[in-house]
Amino acid sequence: MSRKLELAAVFLSPAVLCAALLIAGQTTLLAAAVATGIIWLLAANSGKSSYISACFAVILLLAFLADNSGVSPSLLLLSVSLALAAWDLSRFAARLSRLTPPEYAARLERLHLQRLGQTLAAGLAAGLAAIMIRVEVGFIPEMILAVLAFITLSYLVRGLSAIPLETDN
Asked: Where are the domains of the chain?
């Protein structure tokens, strides 16, 4: 399940960024986003984590550069959020395959997807609220706040996950 979601996020993140750049007429950044999307899809299919992390960084850089080019902040936020989800899912899959006995994998995957969904929803809601409030804040401060919110919520979720779960004994 998470593999399909990872590939969907890998496809959609550059696709949303490409759509935003196309609307804004930023052809140079558009070409870079298309190339990054193709490389990321190939890397995700082959499992090359160094390329996956590099593509994630390039998407962030392109979003940063696009912010000063009149591109929709909402689309940039969505693209970066999808990129973050894809990167997280690829790293989670790598850790899961190395560290987890197969009998626990499905449960850990389900819990991780729930936590990731909650974190992304909260981050997107906060980012969209900041955009809709019409406060003059650029994309970069929004991204910093979104990343800080993501990190904070991740620590919160980790803290909650440390609470022992009831077993069916």
From this structure: 2-161
